[in-house]
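Propose amino acids for all 405 sites.
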């Protein structure tokens, strides 16, 4: 039986209430019904809810913009509505035009400027609705767009309604460091949660409301039905709609909570290939030795093999790279964050003369400076202890906001 998403579980009272209100919808092309109809169209056609405006986060409504590319607002003739970007150029951000794709991402992506609902638009709304597919990792800016929208709603007294969707990599497992808030807060990490958080957007909204906004958001969550927190996305009966240009499959989302760290290094994370995040490499890595040594560790739930690739864009565009391809053999045992730390440790010890961190961005990704520090010192035992302590602390906070078991 397919999982029923929040969009399908709106009660008649809620629908009638929304018909009377000025509604803004935050969504993109992942906001669909089981018949592949956009939420915006479904609101108008099936529910009789007229939207005042539609907001699109990073990558744009149609998810055709690369990471770090500012998105412009425009009128969509097919939807018949103005799509207003909440990932737009802020003051002084035009300078990013001259930078390459990766530099844009590392500079523009961490900033909040231009990423809130505009004040003049918020003044014309009664309710903001969010319907978007998350991927279960802190470093994914749809979470930050939600937090920024909630901030505006708290200030303006606007109702905020989350139409919940499943966490695609399940709602049980969480892993990684808790972001050191507010020191390392940025648009790629808005709050003190673990890298893999094991929560839905509805559950995260409940946490943000209490811990960030002191309960001042008039928050409502339209819950999932027939979803169990142990379920992965391929068990929900729903199609995988790319939630961003470099998230082509559930396999990508499975490794992403660890592999996203390579965005903060001079190692290619596989952008510009058909398997982003599932392959990594650089012109100066010995892929054969890399694969052999990682497999010798016998890490649970994963194997790797040597690969050679040539990215069509991003790091090392048109250059031959050597590295590894990741194969998750048992996703219930696989620990993506710890696995990627092992990869980084190997590269530092074996290719340290060529390897480099983009320190500011890497620390924003991990949410602290101690991960980078311990990797450089080779002190992984202390790092494992710190991760365990962070995860234990997060579990205690997290349990209070869970909606599903």
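Proposal:
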């Amino acid at each position: 039986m397919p999982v029923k998403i929040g969009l399908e579980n709106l009660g008649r009272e809620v629908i009638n209430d929304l018909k009377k209100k000025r509604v803004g919808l935050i969504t993109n092309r992942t906001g669909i019904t089981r018949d592949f109809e956009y939420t915006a169209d479904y609101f108008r056609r099936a529910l009789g809810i007229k939207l005042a405006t539609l907001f699109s986060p990073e990558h744009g409504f149609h998810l055709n913009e690369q990471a770090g590319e500012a998105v412009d607002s425009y009128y969509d003739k097919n939807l018949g509505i103005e799509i207003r970007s909440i990932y737009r150029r802020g003051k002084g951000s035009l300078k990013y035009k001259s930078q390459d794709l990766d530099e844009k991402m590392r500079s523009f992506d961490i900033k909040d400027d231009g990423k809130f609902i505009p004040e003049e638009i918020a003044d014309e709304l009664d309710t903001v609705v969010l319907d978007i597919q998350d991927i279960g990792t802190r470093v994914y800016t749809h979470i930050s767009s939600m937090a920024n929208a909630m901030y505006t709603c708290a200030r303006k007294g606007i109702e905020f309604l989350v139409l919940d969707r499943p966490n695609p990599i399940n709602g049980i497992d969480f892993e990684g460091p808790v972001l050191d808030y507010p020191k390392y807060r940025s648009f790629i990490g808005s709050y003190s949660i673990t890298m893999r958080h094991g929560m839905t957007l509805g559950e995260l909204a409940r946490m943000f409301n209490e811990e960030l906004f002191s309960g001042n958001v008039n928050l409502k969550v339209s819950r999932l039905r027939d979803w169990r927190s142990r379920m992965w996305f391929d068990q929900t009966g729903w199609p995988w709609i790319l939630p961003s240009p470099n998230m082509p499959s559930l396999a990508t989302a499975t490794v992403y909570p660890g592999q996203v760290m390579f965005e903060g290094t001079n190692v290619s994370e596989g952008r510009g290939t058909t398997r982003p995040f599932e392959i990594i490499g650089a012109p100066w890595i010995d892929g054969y030795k890399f694969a052999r040594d990682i497999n010798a560790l016998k890490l649970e739930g994963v194997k790797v093999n040597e690969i050679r690739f040539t990215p069509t864009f991003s790091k090392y565009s048109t250059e031959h790279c050597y590295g590894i391809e990741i194969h998750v053999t048992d996703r219930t045992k696989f620990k993506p964050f710890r696995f990627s730390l092992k990869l980084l440790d190997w590269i530092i010890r074996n290719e340290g003369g060529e390897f480099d961190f983009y320190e500011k961005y890497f620390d924003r990704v991990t949410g602290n400076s101690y991960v980078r520090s311990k990797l450089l010192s080779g002190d992984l035992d202390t790092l494992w202890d710190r991760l365990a302590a962070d995860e234990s602390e997060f579990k205690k906070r997290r349990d209070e906001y869970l909606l599903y078991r």
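Residues 380-398 form the longest helix (19 residues). Residues 6-238+397-401 form a domain with the Rossmann fold fold (CATH 3.40.50.12170).
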